[in-house]
Each structure stands twice: as structure tokens, then as C-alpha cells.
Design goal:
By secondary structure, the chain is of the alpha+beta class. 32% of the residues lie in helices and 14% in strands. It binds flavin mononucleotide. The site of flavin mononucleotide has 9 residues, from helix 2.
């Protein structure tokens, strides 16, 4: 029998990821409530009606509020966990308390999940606001202390617009041979 394999790169191939796939309605509601609580603690009690539709930031915030209020309606809430590991640049004498999750390895894994979802026509949003209540969520799911709950990805078929996204054009961000030189060599 063959199993689906994880694919992402990681330092010394440590593969420090693990996943909690949440489909149970009551458990999704618990996650949504914790996320929404954290969202309000971070950004205040904003309602969609207060937010403008004619600016990019207004539209992003509206989408973020809508997600915070309705995340539990997504068929799957995927938590990507990362094993804790001190970054090598943290000196031994500074390694006190819990190590952070190995973000450098978890984010390529998360990006692969986002790309795979898009290729399948699934909507998936990278979110992190659950981390404000990470300890409570970890306890509810029985996630051992050696893992952090790095990213929460609601996944489902999108209802609305799912077109191409806009980002800063690469030529504005690419420096040729020396910082500040944005003109490509001929
Ligand atoms: C590290 C990181 C953390 C993020 N956390 C959240 C989050 O908690 N909630 C959310 O709605 N979006 C979150 N996002 C998504 C960004 O807000 C989103 O990618 C950005 O606004 C661009 O929007 P778009 O991808 O829909 O074009 C996060 C993205 C990154 C890379």
C-alpha cells in the first residue's frame, strides 16, 4: 500500500511537521471561537459594516473579519504543527525556556499546502491569530509540548471571487549585483 507523502524541504531533512485535521463541527466551532477571540484582542471589535469597500486594506479587513466570524463553516480546519527546535544562531547560553517551533521548515510546508489547494481549486487561507490562545488549543487537541501550532488553514471550495492575486512586481524588489541597482544587466 502506498501512502501520500509530505514533500517540503527542511534543515537536515528533519521534517518537523505534523498536522491536526479538524472536521468535527463542535471542534471547528471551538477553534473558530478561540480564533475570533484572539482576532478581537488583536484588532478590536470591528464589524464588517464599519469597513470600507473602496480601499484595498478595507476589503482585506472585511475578508479577515468574515473569516474570523465564519471559519467553522469551512469543511476542514488544518493546523500545521512544528516541532520546537532552537535556531542554530541562538547561542547555547541563550537557550532558555521552550524553543520556538522550526518556522523555517514549517513555512515551506505551509506554502506547498496552499499551492496544492489552489491547483485543486480549493480556497485556503494562511492564518496565525489562533496563536494568541495557542496553549488552550494545544491542550484541547492533546498536542504535546514539543510542538507549536504554527498555522491554521481553513480549506474549502470558495463561494466568491477566486481570481489571481496582486503583489508588488518583482522588478521593483530585485537588486542586481548590489543593493539599490534595480536595472537588470544587459
Ligand atoms: C505569517 C502570516 C500570518 C498571517 N496571519 C493571518 C491571520 O491570522 N488572519 C488572516 O486572515 N490572514 C493572515 N495571513 C494572510 C494575509 O493577511 C494575506 O496573505 C494578505 O493579506 C494578502 O491577502 P491575499 O493572500 O488574500 O491576497 C497571514 C499571512 C502570513 C504570511
Amino acid at each position: 500500500m502506498s501512502y501520500p507523502r509530505t514533500q517540503a524541504p527542511s534543515g537536515v531533512n528533519s521534517q518537523p511537521w505534523a498536522f491536526v485535521a479538524v472536521q468535527d463541527p463542535a471542534t471547528k466551532k471551538f477553534l473558530q471561537e478561540k480564533y475570533h477571540q484572539g482576532f478581537r484582542e488583536r484588532l478590536g471589535d470591528v464589524s464588517i459594516e464599519q469597513l470600507p469597500t473602496d480601499t484595498s486594506i478595507g476589503r482585506s479587513m472585511r475578508a479577515a473579519v468574515e473569516l474570523a466570524e465564519n471559519m467553522h463553516e469551512a469543511p476542514l480546519l488544518l493546523i500545521v504543527c512544528g516541532k520546537r527546535d532552537w535556531p542554530y544562531q541562538t547561542l547555547l547560553e541563550n537557550r532558555t525556556g521552550k524553543a520556538p517551533p522550526n518556522y523555517g521548515a514549517i513555512y515551506p510546508c505551509v506554502q506547498n499546502i496552499l499551492l496544492a489547494c489552489r491547483a485543486l481549486g480549493l480556497g485556503a487561507s494562511l492564518t496565525t491569530t489562533h496563536r494568541i490562545h495557542e496553549a488552550e488549543i494545544a491542550e484541547r487537541f492533546g498536542v504535546p509540548d514539543e510542538y507549536g501550532l504554527v498555522v491554521l488553514i481553513p480549506i474549502g471550495y470558495p463561494k466568491g471571487k477566486f481570481g489571481p492575486i496582486t503583489r508588488i512586481p518583482a522588478p521593483k524588489l530585485t537588486h542586481y549585483d548590489h543593493w539599490g541597482n534595480l536595472t537588470p544587466p544587459t
